[in-house]
Amino acid sequence: MAAKKKVTLGKTITGKEKALKILSFALGKKAQDPIIIDIRSLSHFCDYFILCSGTSQRHARAIYEEVIKSSKKNKIGIHHCENDSSSSWLLVDYYDIIMHIFTEESREFYGIERLWREAKRIRIPKKVLGNTEFNS
């Protein structure tokens, strides 16, 4: 089955391309350990999860705010945002993609990667990662 095309950023792009673009916003604020998980074969509520971590609550909040600001600037529609008062798990819902931004401790505690271990991980191209080193 061919990938669904979405109209975003003034042109037609795939969900994977959109996920990579959104991830690039987070990487602009030095998000740590980024992964994209393709959950299309396991779930019907969205197509991809993007996960990344901040080194502190303040860093996670800065990533979250940058993702929202850059999404709006690039005309990528956001359905819903969630954040807790401690900024340990922040979420941006784009309908077809859900971005999770954690502190390192919360990411380990909730174990989203373990819960969705059967899902396919998407390779993140070096041009998206830039010259920054990551542990993923």
Protein described:
The protein is an alpha+beta fold and 136 residues long. It has a single domain (14-123), classed as Beta Polymerase, domain 2. It is built from five helices and eight strands; from the N terminus they run ββαββαβββααβα. The longest helix is centred in the middle third of the chain and has 17 residues, at 57-73. It is globular, with a radius of gyration of 14 Å. The N and C termini lie far apart (29 Å).
Oligomer: single chain
* Structural classification: alpha+beta
Mean pLDDT: 88
Rough outline: globular
CATH structural architecture: 2-Layer Sandwich
Compute the separation of the termini in Å. 29 Å
What does this entry show, briefly?
The protein has 136 residues and is α+β, with helices and mostly antiparallel strands. Helices cover 33% and strands 30% of the residues.
Main features:
about 140 residues; alpha+beta; 5 helices; disordered C terminus
Layout of secondary structure:
Blueprint: E1 5-8, E2 11-14, H1 15-27, E3 32-38, E4 48-54, H2 57-73, E5 80-83, E6 89-93, E7 97-103, H3 104-110, H4 112-115, E8 120-122, H5 126-129
Parallel strand pairs: 4-7
Antiparallel strand pairs: 1-2, 3-4, 3-8, 5-6, 6-7
